[in-house]
């Protein structure tokens, strides 16, 4: 199984994931990243933090960015409130 790394993207920088996790494929990693982002946003809101994580970058074991899950995709209610 491939290893994917979830780097947490904030407005002012990225927090790297040094360990990574095994997933059967990129779709499974993307689904897990979406769930992880929802949890991170929820914790930030409950902690009254001013900054919310904006996305999770998904990197493969070769150091390539293969996908990115944005907050508006992970939490559709945010996208509906902030139309472009």
Termini Cα gap: 38 Å
What letter string, H or E per element, gives the SSE order?
EEEHEEHH
Put simply, the count of helices is 3
Tell me the helix content.
25-40%
Give me the secondary-structure category: alpha+beta
The strand count comes to: 5
Shape type: globular
Radius of gyration, in Å, reads 13 Å
Global mean pLDDT: 89
**Poorly predicted regions:** none
Biggest beta sheet attributes: 5 strands, antiparallel
Indicate the proportion of strand residues. Answer: 25-35%
Give a short synopsis of this structure.
This protein is 37% helix and 30% strand.
Features of this protein?
84 residues, 37% helix, five-stranded antiparallel beta sheet, alpha+beta
Please describe what this structure looks like:
The chain has 84 residues and is α+β, with helices and mostly antiparallel strands. The chain is 37% helix and 30% strand. It has helices at 26-46, 71-74, 76-81, and strands at residues 3-10, 13-15, 21-22, 55-60, 65-70. Strands 1, 2, 3, 4 and 5 form a five-stranded antiparallel sheet that branches. Strand 1 (3-10) and strand 2 (13-15) form a beta hairpin.
List the helices and strands and how they pair.
Layout: E1 3-10, E2 13-15, E3 21-22, H1 26-46, E4 55-60, E5 65-70, H2 71-74, H3 76-81
